[in-house]
Design goal:
Elements lengths: L2 E7 L13 E6 L2 E7 L3 H7 L7 E5 L5 H4 L2 H10 L6 E6 L1 H12 L8 E6 L6 E4 L3 E7 L7 E7 L5 E2 L1 H6 L7 H6 L3 E3 L2 E3 L5 E2 L6 E5 L9 H4 L4 E5 L7 H7 L4 H10 L4 E5 L9 H7 L6 E3 L5 E3 L3
Parallel strand pairs: 3-4, 4-5, 5-6, 14-15, 15-16, 16-17
Antiparallel strand pairs: 1-2, 1-18, 2-3, 7-8, 8-9, 9-14, 10-13, 11-12
Bound molecules: zinc ion (2 copies).
């Protein structure tokens, strides 16, 4: 029942040896989603043991280079590795032309099909859904069109209470109905589902917000999430610079986490000027104690 975030890069646009620019892989119940794909993402995947071919869905927040310039390289590698399964890309609409003009210029004919899902809406929308998970956009406030992503588990099934079903002699054929939450009702015998099952595991959620200025409109979308990743490009003494560049300070990130009542906050997208991140925590703790700074290679598991 895994729900795990792998941080492949947590730096911002200027290159530094300390951090790679942004990319993350989210493993939800063994479905792997790549969010953002900066330069160097392939190497980070190799370094941290992420299997390339497990990625079927890629989500790109916006078209600043530190969030997508690794994508064409990754696509080319998937082709070299002989991929045949289709690849889904969810991204601002202009990325489609960028990818396909690069492929045209190199006369590359991919061994697999790309389904491009253009993002244009400024409202939060459902962009991905399967039996277990939904993904919505989180419209952010940045210098160009930019979305975060909210990944949520759907409601888990009720868990069969083996002692209760045995004691009540419930036929096995009924188990799938109980899992869906139906009350047992047969041969004039009625038993509420709660007496035959254990409560479903709670649905877990992860919100990814990078890059953005302080933006309270996201609060209703990310309210009560288990884990929030929010950018904190700057410390608080760089408020003015943060405003000019449509980025956030650590204080901004913590205030959003607090107002949205999230369980835990992780912050990244640090400016290259910061060699270490201790001071981010010093400034975070008075506002939102359950904060962690991320580093490349970190893994965060969301427990039940
Ligand atoms: Zn960025
Ligand atoms: Zn940006």
């Amino acid at each position: 029942m895994v729900f795990k975030i792998n941080i492949l890069g947590c730096g911002s646009a200027t290159p530094t040896l300390r951090r790679n620019p942004t990319a993350q892989v989210i493993n939800v119940l063994e479905c792997h989603f790549l969010i953002d794909c900066a330069e160097g993402t392939q190497l980070q995947m190799r370094k941290y043991g992420i299997k390339f071919q497990k990625i079927n869905h890629i989500f790109i927040s916006h078209l600043h280079g530190d969030h997508y310039l690794g994508l064409i390289g990754f696509i080319s590698t998937l082709h070299l590795l002989g991929r045949t399964r289709e690849l889904n890309i969810y991204a601002p609409k202009d990325l489609e032309e960028i990818i396909f003009s690069q492929l045209r210029a190199s006369q590359s004919f991919l061994s697999f099909h790309i389904n491009f899902h253009p993002l244009v809406s400024k409202e939060s929308e459902l962009i991905y859904e399967d039996d277990l998970v939904t993904i919505h956009t989180i419209p952010l406030k940045h210098r160009i069109y930019c979305n975060g992503f909210l990944i949520k588990e759907k409601k888990h099934p009720y868990r069969i209470d083996i002692n209760a079903v045995t004691a009540n002699k419930i036929p096995i054929a009924w188990y799938h109905k109980l899992k869906k939450g139906e009350n047992y009702n047969e041969n004039e015998q009625f038993i509420p589902v709660e007496e035959l099952t254990l409560a479903p595991y709670p649905s877990r959620s992860y919100a990814y917000c990078s890059d953005t200025a302080y933006f309270e409109s996201i609060i209703p979308i990310i309210e009560n999430v288990d884990l929030l990743y929010h950018e904190a490009t700057f410390l608080n003494d760089q408020k003015k610079r943060a405003k000019q560049t449509f980025h956030s300070t650590i204080e901004d990130a913590c205030n959003i986490a607090k107002k949205a009542n999230v369980k835990k906050l992780i912050v990244g997208h640090f400016s290259a000027r910061y060699k270490t991140t201790e001071q981010f925590l010093e400034e975070a703790y008075p506002i939102f104690i359950n904060t962690e700074t991320v580093k490349d290679g970190d893994e965060f598991n969301i427990p039940f």
